[in-house]
Amino acid sequence: MYLKKLELSGFKSFAKKTTLEFPSRITAVVGPNGSGKSNIVEALRWVMGEQSMKSLRGKKGEDLIWNGSPVSPSGGPGISRMGKASVTLFFDNKDGEIPVDFEEVSIARKIFRDGVNEYFINGSHVRLKDITELAARLGLGESKHNIIGQGEVDRILLSSPRERRQMIEEALGLLVYELKKQETEKKLKETEQNKSQAEVLVREITPHLKFLKAQVEKQEMRARLENERTLLEMQYLAAERYELEEMKAAIANRVEPVDRRQRDIRKEIILFEKERAELEAHIRREADMRRGMRQEVTLEDRRRACERELGRLEGKREAAAVAAAAEVPRVWMVDTEYIKEEVKEILQEMRAVLEGKERIDGIRAQLLSLVEDIEKFLEDVGRGPSSKSDKQEPHESDEVRALTLDMEALGREIKKIGEELGAYHEVRKKREDAERGALSRIKEIDRLLKQKTEEERETALERERIAFEEREFRARQEAYERARANCNGTEEETAHSEREGHESLSSAEIKRKIERISIRLEGTTGADEQTLKEYHTLHSRHEFLKKELDDMSRASQSLRALVRELDSHIREDFKEGFAKIKSAFHEYFQIIFGGGKATLKITNYKPRNTTSATAFGGRNEVAEVDIRGKSQMTNAEEGGTDVEAENGVEIEVSLPRKRIHGLQMLSGGERALTSVALLFAFISVRPPPFLVLDETDTALDEANTGRFSALLKELSRKTQLVVVTHNRETMKCAQVLYGVTMGEDGVSKFLSLKFDEAEAYAGR
Q1: Could you write out the DSSP letters of every residue in 693-757?
Q2: What are 147-180's pLDDT values in tens digits?
């Protein structure tokens, strides 16, 4: 990496855009006093972030902008003043030493008349901090040890031990770590302050937060009870719905059988009543028929008539028989007394039957026996005497035969009447049996009707109980619907509870729980909405502050660890670099002075302003706050005064052939050469991108100027040099020479010359 070119526009005396290219290792700028040579050095210092107007030979930012000229060189109107000034440095970055992905890196700064400054890296707006960090990475720090202005050659010697240490750190490239450490300590200080403020706020809001928390806990308890009640209500709805469904199904299962049984019983009663009515009608009809029957009377009259006729015939026959007794054998005598007795007995039995005293079967048997006797008698009479084999039958008279025939006819009539009476009594018996059966059936039907009526009454009572359960079901159904409408649960939660509620307690048990929770809720008072809002706001703030405190505590620990790490890194690198610079300083001192001795020593001294550890959170520990490296003189934990001593750098020299051991005794030239030796020692250990020397050889005599030129050539192998000089020996060591002139308009102009081209041109 090397400095490629410098562009100036409107900066001090460079009114027009001017470009200086640096193609060689040593570039010299020459010109008369007042021509604007030092403006180039100040432009380099300014574009690298210089903020001190004193170092730029101005009082305010507007002094850096071209202020115009009254006349031009031709006598015409001059160049008007400009509204801004800009300076741009271009670096060749092909080696990638600058950590950006560009082969050419430009650093620019602009200033406007209103005092606004703008910074750019490769045309992009950046902060001053970015420019400072980039300069620190390149070894170009705030002390600008690589830019030695006019009259500043012995600045290193005249600086304080602390400033010398700062220069060494910048020369070693430790400034970037110092800046990080400084920024970290600043953040640490701000973090501790913020932490202290947060702790105060936490202590302030904690008591009120506890009071609000107690109110909110009551509200939360009430909310939990309400949520529990809501959950129980949903479970109650689920259990109630499940029980209602079971109740509905049970009622439906009971209603149909009861109704069917009731219908069946009613049908059976109707059938029994119909059958009873039919039987009663049948009995009435039979009674009417019995009352309307006259056949029995007719048969009885005929029977009496036959008896009388039979008696008459019997009498006549007996008389006729007596008349013919003498003539008719005894065998023809008819036992009429027997027949008469038999007929009387049959008639008595028939009368008894008609009066209901005896059964008709006995009469039938006697009638049949009588009929058989009469038939036998008639057969015997029909056969007459001829039918007897051994005896002569008595002779029958015509009258007897006629009477016999009449008696036969009467016997047949009696037989017929007997048959009719038997048939009549058979029919009568059947009707009486049917009537008795009907009466028995009526009694059975009455018993069954009584039983069915009792069953119908029981089924009616059962149906009434079912109707009562239906009314209870409808009432529970309506209560369920009202409870469901008033339930605070969502449809999904209610449906979920309904799916699972039947697996838990019964609805009655859940309802008792709900009632107990409702009683507890009546005795629980919660916070109002404003209190809840205040609590949540204060709680959020408290949690935020606690989180911030935790974050700040972790950040504080992390920052302290980073400070310790940076301190350790700086100490180690400084120790190593300081030893190299010390050795190089001694070597360059001997080269310049031809002997002698020069050394650097680290000393501890009490600074004017001490830093107390209480600035960092008030803790009993010594804070490491200064980026310049300090030595702890006392420890707060041991009862010290929390005072630190700074580590500075002292210079000790011993000139050859002189008994001079202090810087105060050196002449101006000797101080300049000593400064150059130390400056070259810095550069030799860690060369900066470029080194600017503004008339640092002014105080040197001719002999020392030669040594100075030789050192420049040696140093140009390590870094790029821009030298502003009036010394010819110094000019000779340069490869490119810029001459600066200024006309009547006050504008600085350049004339350039490359010595290689000039020698070639002169040789021709």
Answers
A1: EESTTTT--HHHHHHHHHHHHHHTTTSEEEEE---HHHHHT-SEEEEEEE-TT--EEEEEEEHHH
A2: 877 666 677 777 888 888 888 887 777 777 877 8
